[in-house]
Amino acid sequence: MPPLVPATGPQRVIAASNFVYTVGSGLYLTAGVLYFTQAVHLPAGQVGLGLSLTGLVSLGLGIAAGHLADTRGARGVYAASLVVQAAATAAFLLADAFWPFVLAVGAATGAKAAGLAARSPLIRHYGGDRPQEFRAVLRALTNVGISLGALLAGWAVQVGTLPAYRLLVIGNAVAFAASAAVLLLLPPVAPAPAARGPRWIALRDRPYLLLTALDGVMAVQFKVLTVALPLWLVGATDAPRWLVSGAMVANTLIVIAFQVRASRRIDSPAAGGSAYRRSGAAFLLSCSLIALAAGVPAWTAALLLMSGVVVHTVGELWHAAGGFEVSFALAPDHATGQYLGVFGLGAGLAEAVGPGLLIALCITWGRPGWYVVGALFALTGLAAPSAVRWAQRRQAGRPCLAAPGGSRNQSASAGTD
């Protein structure tokens, strides 16, 4: 197991806040949809439509919150986003119809997007010489927290009563509020000095926007194990159904054990581009293995599916590490929040359209759809190194701006594109 307790005090505060937050996230990810369909009795179609709408509407909030964190102070903006998310989550208890549901979930989803962007300047400021590695530690801790939250949510699902589900929602809101309280122990970060030129420079950085789009396509892979694989396993294979849980456990344990190690070897934008290429090849292989599990004996199907899960998770490690590297290294110090807010657009779009795309290709179409999805990942990975080289060339032509109060990441620069 990698060391998941950071060495410095500020890093430990950020990690502790993140851990408490992700326990709450695990509660919602496991049983949030069930709360609205089983306890509130909203139709599943309305829930799916509402989640898609709120996901799309909240995309731009990350950019605005990231810019606000850069110019007004990241700790305060991040803590405020957590408080809003806690209040919005508590409002789930009042969401007894479609539009109250959309308003409550929309506020929570928007606050989540804002918080992810606002946290980025804190990670860069307190992450040491390699904030990308600290980001990998946080991702490993995220998997630990979500796993614990999922175990707690299992009780509510098993009991299945309205009071049990309401306790789950209250626990989720309390976790978000506690995360904000822990964050107040972090020393504040002074805003970066304003740079000359246009305000929204990330939206003018075409190479970075291209990388954002490529990462968004690749981020559809996060829905493969949570959406496509369970439906495929149950509907198209003879594998035992408990493998749905087994796949998630295997994925989580591998990420916890190896994400930090994988990120240490990806220490430059060029290495990040290569990591994308390797992850695309891994996703192609894993999709092919999963596709072959249909129409074979149960034990063969189980072997193919679990092999696909392991290969997919290796690709996930490379994809995440590559994304950490290029998103931070190619973002100027004074606009980290704004740039990371833009980079989050790709993952946000994947969150909104990924489930429908995977269901249409992998489940409705069947085995050929799995090959198409795998090829899409592979082609995206092949395009990433060229996009990284373009971004580096544009970055080299920018004027440098020293970070306030100390040294800067050597591979980052500032200015406009």
* Radius of gyration, in angstroms, nearest whole number: 21 Å
- CATH topology of the largest domain, which one? Growth Hormone, Chain: A
* CATH fourth-tier homologous superfamily of the largest domain: MFS general substrate transporter like domains
Q: Outline, from the CA principal axes?
A: globular
Please state the average pLDDT score. 87
Strand content: under 5%
Helix proportion range:
over 70%
- The level 1 CATH classification of the largest domain is Mainly Alpha
Which architecture of the largest domain would the CATH scheme give at its second level?
Answer: Up-down Bundle
Number of distinct beta strands: 0
**N-end to C-end Cα span:** 42 Å
Biggest sheet features? none
Quickly give the structural class: mainly alpha
Ranges with pLDDT <50 over ≥5 residues? 401-417
Q: How many separate domains make up the residues?
A: 2
Order of helices and strands: HHHHHHHHHHHHHH
Number of helical elements: 14
